Amino acid sequence: xxxxxxxxxxxxxxxxxxxxxxxxxxxxxxxxxxxxxxxxxxxxxxxxxxxxxxxxxxxxxxxxxxxxxxxxxxxxxxxxxxxxxxxxxxxxxxxxxxxxxxxxxxxxxxxxxxxxxxxxxxxxxxxxxxxxxxxxxxxxxxxxxxxxxxxxxxxxxxxxxxxxxxxxxxxxxxxxxxxxxxxxxxxxxxxxxxxxxxxxxxxxxxxxxxxxxxxxxxxxxxxxxxxxxxxxxxxxxxxxxxxxxxxxxxxxxxxxxxxxxxxxxxxxxxxxxxxxxxxxxxxxxxxxxxxxxxxxxxxxxxxxxxxxxxxxxxxxxxxxxxxxxxxxxxxxxxxxxxxxxxxxxxxxxxxxxxxxxxxxxxxxxxxxxxx
Length: 371
Ligand SMILES: Cc1cc2nc3c(=O)[nH]c(=O)nc-3n(C[C@H](O)[C@H](O)[C@H](O)COP(=O)(O)O)c2cc1C
Hints:
Layout: E1 4-8, E2 14-18, H1 19-24, H2 47-56, E3 68-74, E4 77-82, H3 96-115, E5 119-124, E6 133-140, H4 151-155, H5 170-177, E7 184-188, H6 192-209, H7 212-221, E8 222-223, H8 226-232, E9 236-237, H9 245-254, H10 257-260, H11 263-277, E10 282-288, H12 293-310, E11 315-319, H13 322-325, H14 327-337, E12 342-351, H15 365-368, E13 369-370
Parallel strand pairs: 3-13, 8-9
Antiparallel strand pairs: 1-2, 3-4, 4-6, 5-6, 7-10, 10-12, 11-12
Helix pairs in contact: 2-3, 3-12, 6-11, 6-14
Bound molecules: flavin mononucleotide.
Residues 60-64, 97, 100-101, 104, 157-158, 160, 236, 240, 318-322, 358, 360 line the site of flavin mononucleotide.
């Protein structure tokens, strides 16, 4: 007998799906391992160059836009650039987060190069966040090279769910921040500042969820179906957003940009944020002195060095940047928590029982390489 499923979707639409219909639907979350290996033969890159640039591209970026490109000059000599088509003007109008993300890309690149025996020489080209050409990089095998285990780059990921509220052990915290303690500020979940950050994160998310420009931009970067996820290989997928099971199936098959603008979608997001902020050992803020291009690149590198260490200690990182993105919450931030330097990252942190594998997608190297 044919068994039908009745589904009531957001907005009250009733849907009937038979077993056959289910099998023909988009049945599972599309993940990083589902991406086909790139078989392009026209690339001028050596195997080492390809591996280094692939590992560099595993850096995090806001909405997973992957805002970098690499201009090939000659073997082991490139320009790292800022891809204007990947900017997020509604939430990042000054490209602050774009430059931080490219800093993370540079750190991955350097570590991946060291793993293969190369040192990197970076030279700044840009004077503004909006400049296309940011830095040149040259790789060579001269001098002392400290190898870095590049498995750590491949295993890094953002984790948003199931973060525990247990306090961070003193030794673990020291392992993470001791070398750069001037820039790292850990705010444990027992402090007054922690409560302020929780409240303000919810407040900023409320503002942003009802700011149509920000919500439209978010919708542009959600890859609802597996087909879109595979074609674009960027943005926020159901797997990346940690929407699993039946909810993931619904989103992949029946949701689109228009849903993001509906009240129930916006409110569900705010509810999620409330739940998320109630679970953590605390917040880690990363500050900088000033906000020039070089300072932002260095801060992105610093953030990535931290992020590549946390898995050793079973600790999750979840950036929640809305306080910084919304002027109404950003203005009061420094004075309310007593930090005078520029705050560049707000990271929710805590232990995990089990560390999930990375799932977010990346465009292949030939898609961001300019020859
Ligand atoms: C500058 C920056 C800002 C980010 N802001 C947020 C955020 O506000 N909320 C969130 O859930 N993730 C945020 N992220 C995480 C990205 O969504 C994530 O890095 C991207 O989707 C790729 O996933 P991965 O980190 O697991 O590789 C941010 C990342 C960066 C680098």
